[in-house]
């Protein structure tokens, strides 16, 4: 950013030396405007990266890792015990503690999807980090629950689009198909 500021100062000096005060002021103004725009873009990008890193840090915190492990175990047991593991059936038949853990995972991914849709997080960071994590939860649990549900939960379509596709590309179409039914 300093290069732009130096450029505006140099053009102002050149304008002043050539005797054109108007050119000096115009050069300084243009330089300041470009500098401000570049600084704003840089800061916006930095904030997006920081938000992405904050979400990754939240997701990888020891307490959230425990929640993910417990939610995964609860869903494995529920898929064996419940004939139709829809969202409603899971809510009704699981303990409050297990349901809350599953819900935290699902709501985290909805928050991530929202943050991506309003361009508040860096897409490359999110895509790279969550390429395995998102598809693990989507393939193993959420797509099956949504297919069993009369009212599937929606809100992860953008994630499915931007996070690197798994080798089994049918899953992406399943996400979109289930969300169309809702």
Write the layout of secondary structure elements.
Elements: H1 2-17, H2 21-60, H3 62-81, H4 87-93, H5 96-117, H6 123-148, H7 157-162, H8 170-181
Outline the structure in words:
This protein is an all-alpha fold and about 180 residues long. It has 8 helices and no strands. The protein has helices at about 1-15, 20-60, 60-80, 85-95, 95-115, 125-150, 155-160, 170-180. The longest helix is centred in the first third of the chain and has 40 residues, at about 20-60. The protein is rod-shaped, with a radius of gyration of 25 Å. The two termini are about 50 Å apart.
Element order: H for helix, E for strand: HHHHHHHH
Kindly, what is the distance between the CA atoms of the first and last residues, rounded to a whole number of angstroms?
A: 48 Å
Give the tally of β-strands: 0
Q: Based on helices, strands and strand pairing, what is the structural class?
A: mainly alpha
Which shape, going by the Cα principal axes?
Answer: rod-shaped
Q: What is the assembly state of the chains in this entry? A: single chain
Q: What is the residue-averaged pLDDT?
A: 81
